[in-house]
Design a protein that fits this description.
By secondary structure, the chain is α+β, with helices and mostly antiparallel strands. Helix content is 19%, strand content 20%. A hairpin with a 4-residue loop joins strand 10 and strand 11. The relative contact order is 0.10.
Length: 505
């Protein structure tokens, strides 16, 4: 008899109320396993892949790509009838020992209590509650038996490893499905393990073409494949146990002809009658609009401007890029600005504070969670660099590079965009001189960096060409007074115009 279970849309962030279905990885009738990624959604903060909490057969999809679904609404129905799902090949194990019941794999449903008292937030979160056993002993190396004689069994008692699904040394191998009566089937390997090349060859996650197939490849190889637009599921690995290597990816890149599948649904075409195109306001765009309206009409904005000669900073950047300490680091003027902000915030902590309307307090932070505004195909996102004030210039440069790359790929997690204390927006990359940015909600100031241009500048009474940049600081006048905002902006400008000043802060 069929047992149907509905999987409802979880809250994958903090207080999210809805999400848009980007694409399904399964269709009705497909067989799925626990923790297999079945759908990709877009929240107000990021694109997120959701794993399946049950093993069974997809019975019905309740939403289509492009639909907006409220948190808690069902998105898919799964038939848990065990007869509809083929059993995974059982690893060899001693008949006397049984693993934990396979029903444990279906535990940890979102919102329910897991064994040990943990509350599951996403399927597969946290350690699996299994009985710990000692690692199996490796059998001693034996000389080959003479022809016609059976091999001598290893000495010592056989030690089973039921909890790991490995055969005990010296125990006879059992064919799949021949476990002792009453013994539960061992847990199938999690799909996440297949992604790092740790799942033994021959398991269900290692068979190309099977539902939930995850190719075996190391993280650097996966990153390379993503950069080259290669689908690892279409490759056959040449490494040990079928692991996909860098050479396999490069070989596929030279022969690839198909374009990578777009991450977002295609935009609707212009209406020939009206010559207009309408796009629903949702996802990142909707969240950005709501936040900016709330900020603009809640916090009294004040914006100040400063023009700075950054020639010494550009010269220092050139020297650092030629040094061994910064070899291979993408050091940009934005990195220098981030360091300057962190140093200047020590002297003017008001710009790193928060206005708490409910408590009637100003909350000063002893840390700087620095937000970097990044333009992506999905809209403007502001991921954060945690504890940026504790980082060196090199660490900041590396963090900014990784953060912006992840944001452009749409893989920034919701948690990475929460809890910022100060934001930098670099409008100079578009050739813009400056702007009047709107403060992010929950913060008190935001710095805009304009384009660095060659301009005439007075140096020692003579007009000479210099590298010049314009800065603008918007701040919440409830928290930051004019004197404090001006002092902070002047400090940032002083560090950029003469980086040696940083040692005095």
């Amino acid at each position: 008899m069929s047992q149907l279970k509905q999987f409802s849309l979880p809250d994958v962030g903090e207080g999210l109320t809805e999400a848009e279905i980007l694409r399904w990885h399964v269709s009705p009738g497909d067989k799925v396993k626990v923790n297999q990624v079945i759908v990709e959604i877009e929240t107000a903060k990021a694109a997120v892949e959701l794993p399946c909490p049950y093993a069974g057969v997809i019975s019905e999809l309740h939403a289509q790509p492009g639909d907006t679904v409220n948190v808690g609404a069902p998105i898919v129905t799964i038939d848990l009838d065990a007869s509809a799902v083929p059993a995974a090949p059982a690893p060899t194990a001693a008949p006397a020992q049984a693993t934990q019941p396979s029903q444990e794999a279906s535990q940890g449903k979102i919102g329910e209590e897991m064994p040990g008292g943990r509350i599951a937030t996403l399927v597969g979160y946290g350690p699996r509650s299994v009985t710990a056993t000692r690692r199996p002993r490796k059998p001693a190396t034996l000389p080959p038996a003479p022809p016609g004689e059976p091999p001598e069994p290893p000495t010592g008692p056989a030690e089973p490893a039921a909890s790991t699904g490995l055969a005990a040394p010296g125990a006879p191998a059992e064919p799949a499905g021949s476990a002792a009566p009453g013994a539960a089937a061992p847990l199938a390997p999690a799909a996440g393990l297949a992604g790092n090349g740790l799942v033994p060859a021959g398991t269900t996650a290692d068979i190309a073409g099977e539902p939930g197939y995850v190719p075996l490849a190391k993280p650097p190889v996966r990153k390379l494949a993503k950069e080259l637009g290669i689908d690892l599921r279409a490759l056959t690995g040449s490494g040990p146990s079928g692991v996909i290597t860098r050479e396999d990816v490069h070989r596929a890149a030279t022969t690839a002809t198909a374009e990578p599948e777009p991450l977002t649904p295609a935009r609707p075409a212009y209406d020939p009658a009206t010559r207009e195109r309408r796009v629903p306001v949702r996802g990142v765009r909707k969240a950005t609009a709501t936040a900016m309206v709330a900020s603009a009409f809640t916090a009294p904005h004040v914006t100040e401007f400063l023009t700075v000669d950054v020639t010494p900073m550009i010269e220092l950047r050139t020297r650092l890029l030629d040094s061994a300490a910064f070899r291979g680091v993408k050091l940009t003027p934005l990195g220098f600005a981030a360091k300057a902000v962190c140093l200047a915030a020590r002297r003017t902590p008001d710009v790193n504070a928060t206005w708490d309307e409910d408590a009637g307090e100003i909350v000063f932070k002893q840390y700087v969670h620095l937000g970097i505004a990044a333009a992506t195909p999905r809209g403007l996102v502001v991921p954060k660099i945690r504890d940026a004030d504790r980082m060196s210039l090199r660490e900041l440069a590396e963090a900014i590079s990784a953060l912006t790359q992840t944001a452009r790929e749409g893989k920034t997690t919701p948690a990475d965009m929460l809890g910022g204390t100060f934001t930098i927006t670099n409008v100079g990359v578009f050739g813009v001189d400056t702007g009047t940015p709107i403060i992010n909600p929950g913060e008190s100031a935001i710095l805009a960096i304009g384009a660095i241009k060659d301009m005439p500048w007075v140096v020692d009474g003579r007009i000479v060409p210099r590298k010049v940049c314009q800065l603008s600081l918007s701040f919440d006048h409830r928290v930051v007074d004019g004197q404090q905002g001006s002092q902070f902006l002047a400090d940032v400008g002083a560090i950029l115009s003469d980086p040696a000043v940083a040692i005095t802060y």
